[in-house]
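To whoever is on call:

I kicked off a structure prediction for a single chain this morning and the downstream step that reads the tokens threw a length-mismatch warning. I double-checked the sequence; it's 272 residues and nothing unusual in it as far as I can see. Pasting both halves so you can look.
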Amino acid sequence: MKYSVSNGLQIVTRSIRTSLGSEQSQDFVIEEQAIAFVYNGISHAVMMATPVDLADFALGFSLSEGIINYKNDLLDLEIEENELGVELNITISNRHFNVLKQKRRTLAGNSGCGLCGLESLQQISNKQQTSLATTPLMNFSIIETALNKFRDKQILNIQAGGVHAAAFCDIKTGNILLIREDVGRHNALDKLIGAIQNNESIPQSGFIISSSRASYEMVDKTITAGVNHLVTISAPTSKAIELAKKHHLNLIGFAREDRQVIYNESENHISL
């Protein structure tokens, strides 16, 4: 069945109860569906996600997972819907598909899934990754400007709540160039990474703001995308900080309009 475009929201009837009684009303909730990533006819991963910006999701996931290296490595995409969810039927070259089969993981991921499905700890430590060039940290005011605009750009979250967002921001002005939302923080970031590649008119030099914590996987995806700065609203984890230091990612957590906590500055390494 051809995919019918979703706006990411569903209307539900709910009952609101107070000490004075209860009443029914309708409200928006965020949509969540099973999204299957199928490469050259072989199912690779199933993620619980919000079914919007799926072309960006397909590209961003493929890039951040190292399945492909460049946008043009994704040769074709067909989106199909059935009673169980949505299939992203992705065509990649035989060369990339053979590599995928060699390191293939069977992945059934919830909306908070990152490294789930890896078969051993050794696979994590053996992952090949190119370090970023050391880059000066942005001025406080640049991040402050982006944070001031971040919440108002989260359209799905404003209407329904319960949604993560990732935004790509201009490194000179702090203006938000792109934003993507999803029930899962990893999904939102994958969608954003895909959107950056799909929008050739925007500057490729910028920084990412995420509404979530800075987990290992969020840092890993940011580095793989070649972005030098990650700003998160919540805390980082110890492994996220280690990875940021190793690959020269500028990492800021607990970001607020009036306060920013620097966990790694690539030009001035901070000890744990």
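Update from on-call: the warning came from a stale cache, not from the record. Cleared it. Sanity check on the structure: Residues 95-126 form one domain.
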